[in-house]
Amino acid sequence: MIKAVIFDMDGLIFDSERLYAKANVKTAKTLGLDKDEAYFYQFVGIGAQDMAERMKEAFDDELVDEFFRLGEEDAHELLLHGEVPTQPGLHELLDYLDDAGIEKVIASSSEVHMIDVMTKNAGIRDRFSAIHGGDQVEQTKPAPDIFELAWSNLGVSKEETLVLEDSINGVLAAHAAGIPVIMVPDTVEPTDEVRDKALAVVNNLSEVANYLKQNR
Description:
Layout: E1 4-7, H1 17-30, H2 37-41, H3 48-55, H4 61-81, H5 90-100, E2 103-107, H6 112-121, E3 130-132, H7 145-152, E4 161-165, H8 168-177, E5 181-183, H9 192-197, E6 200-201, H10 205-214
Parallel strand pairs: 1-2, 1-4, 2-3, 4-5, 5-6
Helix pairs in contact: 1-4, 5-10
């Protein structure tokens, strides 16, 4: 029986991955880099440091550093002060978990400050008992660190815990942590490997609620 659910944030709770991608494309063009949104979707689910390291394999270090300096300003302005929509079915799922007495926490590659501000702006911060960010762990997804951290504070077994993820890197991280995971794809479709590692792949958060009702 599931007693706790660990939520990713970007792309799962919020429809924010597309906003990140648009901000990244804008910054790239400013610096003369001809990269579209599809290029940046490969980095969904990982932290900024890991993304920077991968980009530096293809571009000059100073150029990448400037990209992140400018991009961070644009993205933070957009996400912290703009209206970021929640994903379909979120409130239905939260209500179901509340009624079932299932604990809810967030474990995201975003920084804790970003998670706190975005969830407060959306009026859902108090729906989660704890938040954990990529700035609290040594390695971000697909390493299991963030999910190990979130689970260690729950007081339940890994078999009684469920991770919800929208990204391939997130599913791989949950699987590496030994925690069951359901994928709700957003901008990136699951590979065959990811389908094998996930309990299920569903279309939206409402379907997660239905899955839990049928498998309690």
